[in-house]
Amino acid sequence: MKQTQEKKLFTFGISTLALVIFPLAWFLSQAILFRELTEQVTRNVLVLIAIPLGSTLVFLLFLGMDRLIKLVPRDSREVLEARMFVGPSIFMIFLFLFYPAMRTIYLSFKDRYSNDFIGLENYKWAFTDAEMITTIRNQIVWLISVVLLTVFIGLIVAWLTDRLNKGESFFKSIVFMPMAISAVGATAIFKFIYEYRPPPLTQIGIINGIRVSRGEECYNNRIIDGVLEGYDDASCENAVGWLQQRDLSNLPIADSLESGGWFSNLLINLPINTMLLMIIMVWMYTGFAAVVFSAGIKAIPGEIMEAGQIDGASELRIFRSIVIPYIKSTVIVVSTYMVVTVLKAFDIIYVSTRGDLETNLLAVKMLDEFSKYRNFGRSSVVAVLIFVCVLPVIVGTALRERENSRS
Q: Which residues contact 216 (CB under 8 A, 6 or more apart)?
């Protein structure tokens, strides 16, 4: 009995060593060693030293742990070996993920320079400041609109491409191509589409170039028969600063909406510049959604599709009653991915408007508070808000995976 307890105690000690002491020794040996070497040698020499020396130290640590594990009873070795490899991973997750998250929550209760506790003042600011409320509104609009449009258009494109007899791969490649472009590149492309220059300058934006060129006497500063023809005629349409429009009040369509009721007023107050920026992300990710949905559609048994056609069901009915239920899990996965992508959307706003003109999102606002206004407490609050928005997605995904594993 005493011998059995000693074995259990020894196994527990090895387990603690594998999960706590070993990862800590592994990290400190690397961090301390290369921190000291950084002050002694150049970066290039450090890389040449780090690869063989660091690998050797890691090998020796794992070899030592393996020798210790072999001292325990055979039936406990497999579990301890798994803990030996999982230990460093858990340690790194805690160090670079869990600890920063807890630290951010802690800083959200402190003042501008993280010196004194100020309670919930930063959170009060987050829900009372006019600029912050506009940012939260934009984030909600992005979450609803971008996710729904991407999933809806992706489903339609996937279904239509799946019905093609020829050219399916080519069409999918064309639709997927925007995904290969970085967000910065895509935003630069659309900035040229939305570009506005004050008259009488030449409009290089596609939309404004078309607008000011419509009409018999309207030309976008073209030289015709040696004469420069502009768009200053009264019959010509004016160029519009699309990304500068907070709403529809300055557009020609507003004249026909002002005489309407509450619905017309709602349309006039639509944030047109925010909606135009959302189109960029929808354009980028529709191809991704379409390819994923197409793979899910192809996994549907052909017999079920044929049975629906034999029963006389229309294409729309087959799509609604057969396709959607079968790829429901795929739709949830793509929607979850898009929610997380929208919550961390940064490049599109930063490159296009820098968050000005009421187009800001939480990720850009967090950077502004940190680097532009040097307010660490408020920056931490914005980060916490992003985390709170992502948390239900993470929990829902974990619960869904657990249900799938059980079934």
A: 235
SS (H, E, C) 232-269: CCCCCCCCCCHHHCCCCCCCCCHHHHCCCCHHHHHHHC
229 three-class SS:
strand
Distances (CA, A) of 272 to 206, 347, 349, 386: 17, 19, 14, 24
> Domain coordinates of the chain in residue numbers?
2-89, 130-184+273-406
Query: What is d(CA 209, CA 84) in angstroms, rounded to the nearest whole number?
Result: 64
**Rounded to an integer, what distance in angstroms lies between the CA atom of residue 227 and that of residue 213?**
16
Q: How far apart are CA 107 and CA 392, in angstroms?
A: 22
> Would you tell me the crossing angle of helices 130-162 and 272-298 to the nearest 10 degrees?
30
Say how many C-beta atoms besides its own lie within 10 A of residue 240's C-beta.
Answer: 20
pLDDT of residue 20: 66
Q: Which two tokens stand for residue 270?
A: 């639509």
Which segments of 182-327 does DSSP mark as H helices, in order? 183-194, 206-213, 254-257, 262-268, 272-298, 302-310, 315-318, 324-326
Is pLDDT at 173 greater than 70 in this prediction?
yes
**What does the block give as tokens for 391?**
């948390």
pLDDT tens by residue, 229-261? 888 888 888 888 899 888 877 777 766 666 666
CA–CA gap between residue 381 and residue 39 (Å, rounded): 36
Q: Which of 223, 351, 232 is nearest to 284 (CA)?
A: 351
> Which tens digits make up the pLDDT trace of 258-277?
666 667 777 777 888 999 99
Helix (H, G, I), strand (E, B) or coil at 72: coil
Which CATH superfamily hosts domain 130-184+273-406?
Answer: MetI-like (1.10.3720.10)
End-to-end alpha carbon distance in the chain? 41
